[in-house]
């Protein structure tokens, strides 16, 4: 009978043989996968099968990470929110400043081009504030007499006329705007050449073109420019544009409502023009016929008064001579009565005295009549 060990205690290949076999197998698999990627498909199948197990194993880690994110304090979030809001406000201010600077740059460039095209001297200025009186259209600029600002100088922008300097201080000046009710500018219609004067209105929102006959050719949309006839505003500066024309049969003049071309209240930088008045002085007015006749009549009346005064003085001198002559005759008669023996000698002596008295009376009469030859106001 053959003896064999039980199956539990049966032994296969030796442990060393199995170790060598599996080592060789592992090396072969490594070399084949590294060289020929033979196990790529097997690896993909195993990874897809093990993915649910991997996600299930990572669930505790995900829960911990979520709890850590929720542990961020509200103070940190509020601080970050405040920083973002501050940055947003700064960016908004910078954007607004950039837009304002761009608009100001465009405005200044237009003013620079205007000053280059103008033939008159100009001085840039900036509006500081409005005047205290709310019923007048006036502003104050930061230039005065020390900078060369003169009273009556026109004030313009790149769009047109906006006012005139009406008061000058050492370092400031007051400008009356074009829309003020007391401001007047001589203008002409660019299309027809019709000249007139434009005034402001009490409301200060429009302009009134006055002294325009009903028969005048004025249309809506006509442009008005300075005529230059006053010697203050240079000719050709834009002033306003006609927006409405009302012609009524019961009036001699039409009502023409205009709108300023320039932004009267919206301007900040402006130019003050220095205009030299080259207009010759107005000739003297010729007197009319009535004035000439009145002057001639007054001259004739003065001559007649002088002649009457001279005749009156001469009559007074003659009366005095007669009185002197009578007094001399009386004295001669008395002397003749006292000396009757020498009548001839007395007569002879009286004759020269009489002649001398006459000659003395003549210079006296001439002397009395000389200073009263002409009455006051009479011509020689």
Automatic annotation (TrEMBL):
Residue ranges with Low complexity bias: 362-380
Coiled-coil portions: none
InterPro entries: Cell/Rod_1 (IPR042177), Cell/Rod_MreC_2 (IPR042175), MreC (IPR007221), MreC_beta-barrel_core (IPR055342)
Example GO BP: regulation of cell shape
Keyword Nucleus: no
GO cellular component, one term: plasma membrane
Occurrences of domain Rod shape-determining protein MreC beta-barrel core (ranges): 130-273
Disordered: annotated segments: 279-380
UniProt entry keywords in alphabetical sequence: Cell shape
Biased composition (Basic and acidic residues): 294-361
Pfam families, alphabetized: MreC
Transmembrane regions listed in the UniProt entry: none
Superkingdom: Bacteria
Assigned protein family: Belongs to the MreC family.
Name of the protein in its database record: Cell shape-determining protein MreC
């Amino acid at each position: 009978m053959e003896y064999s060990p039980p199956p539990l205690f049966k032994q296969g290949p030796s442990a060393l043989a199995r170790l060598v076999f599996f080592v060789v197998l592992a090396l072969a698999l490594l070399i084949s996968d590294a060289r020929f990627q033979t196990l790529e498909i097997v690896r993909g199948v195993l990874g897809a099968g093990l993915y649910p197990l991997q996600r299930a194993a990572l669930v505790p880690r995900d829960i911990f990470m979520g709890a850590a994110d929720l542990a961020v304090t509200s103070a940190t979030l509020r601080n970050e929110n405040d920083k973002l809001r501050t940055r947003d406000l700064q960016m908004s201010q910078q954007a607004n400043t950039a837009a304002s600077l761009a608009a100001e740059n465009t405005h200044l460039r237009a003013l620079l081009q205007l000053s280059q095209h103008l033939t008159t001297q100009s001085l840039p200025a900036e509006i500081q504030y409005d005047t205290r009186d709310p019923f007048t259209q006036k502003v104050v600029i930061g230039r005065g007499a020390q900078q060369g600002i003169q009273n009556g100088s026109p004030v313009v922008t790149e769009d047109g006329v906006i006012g005139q300097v009406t008061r000058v201080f050492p370092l400031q000046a007051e400008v009356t705007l074009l829309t003020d009710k007391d401001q007047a500018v001589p203008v002409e219609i660019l299309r027809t050449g019709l000249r007139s004067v434009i005034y402001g209105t009490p409301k200060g929102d429009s302009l009134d073109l006055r002294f325009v006959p009903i028969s005048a050719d004025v249309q809506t949309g006509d442009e008005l420019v300075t005529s230059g006839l006053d010697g203050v505003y240079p000719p050709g500066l834009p002033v306003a544009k006609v927006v409405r024309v009302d012609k009524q049969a019961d009036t001699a003049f039409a009502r023409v409502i205009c709108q300023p071309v320039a932004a009267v209240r919206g301007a900040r930088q402006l130019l003050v023009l220095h205009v030299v008045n080259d207009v010759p002085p107005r000739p003297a007015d010729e007197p009319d016929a009535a004035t000439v006749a009145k002057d001639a009549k007054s001259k004739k009346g003065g001559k007649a008064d002088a002649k009457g005064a001279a005749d009156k003085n001469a009559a007074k001198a003659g009366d005095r001579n007669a009185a002197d002559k009578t007094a001399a005759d009386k004295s001669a008669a008395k002397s003749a009565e006292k000396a009757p023996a020498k009548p001839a000698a007395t007569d002879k002596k009286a004759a020269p005295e009489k002649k001398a008295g006459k000659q003395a009376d003549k210079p006296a009469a001439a002397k009395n009549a000389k200073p009263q030859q002409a009455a006051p106001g009479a011509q020689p």
